[in-house]
C-alpha cells in the first residue's frame, strides 16, 4: 500500500494544560476534549473553533464518554470521581466517587445498560446507565487500570491493566473468562478490530501486540520508542492509528500490520510532547490526536486527491 497524502487540517488550541480525553460531541460535527486544566471544551470540526460549550470540574479531566442517545456526558477526573452531565440542560446531575485515583477510561455497553470506569487504584467499576448507580467494583491489580474496549458484538469487555495483563469479561454478568500476560510492563490500551477477528493491545513497553479470538498472541510489534497510550480505528476499518509518549501518531494497515505513515513533528508539524488520546471521527473521517502539548490536531488522509479511506472502501 502506497503512503497516502497527509494534511493537518487545523490545530485546536485553548486548553492551558495537558489534554487527556476526547469523545464525540453532541452533534456529528463536534468533538469534546478534557484537560488537566479541569475544563471540558467543545470544538466545531468544520471551522476548528470552540463552539460554546464548556464545563469546569473540581479536578483534572482524564476521560470522557458522551452517550448521545441518553443526552448524557460522563467525565472521569484525576480525583477518582465520575461526573454525569445532562447535555440538553447543560447541567451536572450526579457525581459518583468510584475510585481513589484517576479515572483513566470510561466505556458503555448500551445493549446491557452498563457503564464501566477504569481506575488508577487498580479497580474496575460497573454501573447502571439508567439509574446512574454503582453495581459492583472489582480490584484487578495493584497498578493502574488504564484501558477498556468493547467487542463489536457487545458481549465481551477487554481491560488493560498496570500489571501487564489484559483481562476479558463476559457481559452482562461481568464474569472474567480470560487473563493473559500481554506486556512486560503496564498494558495501557486495548482495541478490537471492527469485525472482532483480533484484539490489539498497546503497552508501556512500546509494543503493539495482536491476539486472536482465543487470546493467543499472533504478533508482537516494536511499534514505538516509548509507551503506547491510545489506539483508534478509522470509521470503515481500513486503518488503525496508535499514539505514543514518543510524540508520534502512526497509521497502520490492519491486514499486514505494517506502518503506512508516521505523523511526527519534523515532517508533519505534529505533536511536541506525548500523544495521550486518539479519536477517529465519522465527520469527514478526521483523525484527532491530542496530548501534553495542549493542542488537538485534526488530520486528513488523502490518496491522489481523494479520501484514501473512501477509495479503499470503494465508497462513493
- In the predicted model, the low-confidence regions spanning at least 5 consecutive residues are 304-316
User: What's the helix count?
Assistant: 2
- Proportion of residues in helical segments: under 10%
Structural class: mainly beta
Q: What's the gyration radius in Å?
A: 18 Å
Q: Would you report the number of β strands?
A: 29
Largest β sheet strand count, sense and barrel closure: 5 strands, antiparallel
End-to-end Cα distance, whole Å, is 20 Å
Estimate the strand proportion: over 45%
Question: Taking all residues together, what is the mean pLDDT?
Answer: 93
Shape: globular
Tell me what you see in this structure.
The structure is a single chain. The chain has 316 residues and is mainly beta. 3% of the residues lie in helices and 55% in strands. The chain has 2 helices and 29 strands. It has helices spanning 265-268, 308-312; strands at residues 5-12, 19-24, 30-35, 39-44, 49-56, 61-67, 72-77, 81-86, 91-97, 103-109, 114-119, 123-128, 134-139, 145-150, 156-161, 165-170, 175-181, 187-192, 199-203, 207-211, 217-222, 228-233, 240-244, 249-253, 258-263, 275-280, 287-291, 296-303, 306-307. The strands form 7 sheets. Strands 1, 26, 27, 28 and 29 form a 5-stranded antiparallel sheet that branches. It has a 4-stranded antiparallel sheet with strand order 2-3-4-5, with no helix packed on it. Strands 6-7-8-9 form a 4-stranded antiparallel sheet, with no helix packed on it. A hairpin with a 4-residue loop joins strand 10 (103-109) and strand 11 (114-119). Mean pLDDT is 93; it is low at 304-316.
